[in-house]
Amino acid sequence: MEFLNNFILPQSAEHIELLHYMLILVLFLFIPFISIVFGGSLYSVIYRRRGEKINDGYYLRLAKEIIEITTINKSVGVILGIVPIFTAILIYSQLLHDSQITNLNYLLFAFVFVSIALVFIYSYRYSLSFNRIFNSFSEKDTVTTDVIDDVYKLSDESERISKKAGIYGLIFLFLGLWFFVTALTIPTIYSDWKIEDFIAGLFSGNVLARFALYIFFAVALTGGMILFTFLEEEKKIRVIDKDYSNFVKQKIVRVTFIVTFFIPLLLVICTFGLPESSLTGTVFFYAIISIILLFLGYHFLYLLSKEIKGTVAALLLLTLIFSIASFIISDQKAMATATKFHSASLSAQFDEYFAELKGDGMTVEINAAELYQVKCASCHKWDQKLVGPPHLEVLPKYVGNEAQLEAFIRNPSKVNPEYPSMPNPGLKPNEASALATYLLETYNEKVQ
Ligand code: HEC
C-alpha cells in the first residue's frame, strides 16, 4: 500500500477530527446495507435449499422474494457496497499514516472479496427470477417443441447458476465482512494490538467477538427489513395470499427473536474488550444507548408475534438501525481515543510542515530567547566583552538593517581585528531570522 503515501498530506488536528466524522458517515452507509445483503443471502440460500428438499413452493417463493427485497438493485450495490470500502481505505490511510500498525491490508482483501461476492449475489438474484419465468413457461403447452427445448436448456442453466452463485456469494461476503471487521477492530484497540501475523489477526478475540456481533446484527436487521417490506407491499397490493403471508411472518419473527437475543451479550463483550484507556464515558454512553434500543426492539418483536402490524415493523427496523448506528459511534469514539497519541504526532508533523510552507519561524520565534541562551550566551553579554564583543557596542549599525544582521548570524564574517572570528553557529534560516529580530527588539528596549 506504499503508493497511498503519494496521496497523503500531513494533516492538522481539525482535519483528523473531520476524517473521524467522515469515517462514521461511511460506516453508517456501508454497515446496514452490507448487513442486509448478507442476511438476505443467508435467509434466501437456506430457504431455497429447504424448499428444494421438502419440495415446498412457499420456501422457494420466500427465497426469491427475500433476495429481491434485500439487494435492492445493482447500482445501489455498487454505491453502498463497494464505494464505501474504497473511501474507508483512503480515510484510514490518512489516520494511520506513518504508524507501525495498519489495517489497510485487511481492507484491501475486504474490498476484493465484497466485490466478488456482489457479482455472485446479483447473479443469484436474477437467476432466481429467471427460474420462475422458465417454470411458468414450461407449464404451458402452446409453444412449439424446439422452443421448449431451448427453454429447458436455459432453465437448467439458470438453475445451476442459482444453486452455485448463492453459496459462492455468501462465502465471499462472509470472508469480506470478516476482513472488514478485522480492519475496523485494529484501530479501535490500537494501543493493545500486538499481533503481527496477518492470519492470526483474523482470529484475535476482539475481532471474533465483533464479527459475531455484526453477523447477528445482520440477521436481525434483515428480519426487520423483510417484515417491514412485506407489510408495506401487502398494503399496496390488495391480492393477498393469507397462508403465505402468515408463513412468512411466523418464520421471520421467530428467527429475528432468536438472534436479537444474543446481541446485547456480544455488545458487552466487545465493549469490555477495549483497552482500558479507551473506555471513556462517551464510549459507554453510546454502547448503552445501543443496548436500550435493542430492548425496545424486543418489545416491538413481541408485539409483532402477537399481531403483525406495518407500523410496528417499521419501528422495529428503525430501532435496529439506530442501535447498530449507536454501536458504530461508540466503537469509533474508542478508536479516536486509542489513536489519540498517533493523531497528536501526525498533527505535530503538520504544524512543522505548515511552518515550513509559510517559510517563517512561526514556532521558533517563541523560542528565540531560549535559543539565544543555548547558542549565543556563552560568548556574548550585552554590556561586557566576553569572547565576542558586547551587543550594545555592535548592534547600533544593524538598527533598521535586520536582514544584514540575519545574514551575519547565519554566516559570520570577519569584522573586528581585535576579536577572533565568530564560528558559524549552524542555524536554520528561520532561526537566524528569529534571533535577529530578538536581538534588535531587546536592543531597543535596553537603549530606551
Ligand atoms: C564561540 C563564541 C561565539 C558564539 C557562540 C557566538 N558568537 Fe557572536 N561573536 C563572537 C566573536 C568572537 C565576535 C567578533 C567577530 C568579529 O568581530 O569578527 C562575534 C560577533 C558577533 C556580532 C557582531 C557582528 C559585527 O558586525 O560586529 C554579533 C551581532 C554576534 N556575534 C551575534 C551572535 C549571535 C546572535 C550568536 C548566537 C547565535 C553568537 N553571536 C554566537 C563569538 C561568538
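^ heme C complex. The chain is about 75% helix and 0% strand. The mean pLDDT is 85.
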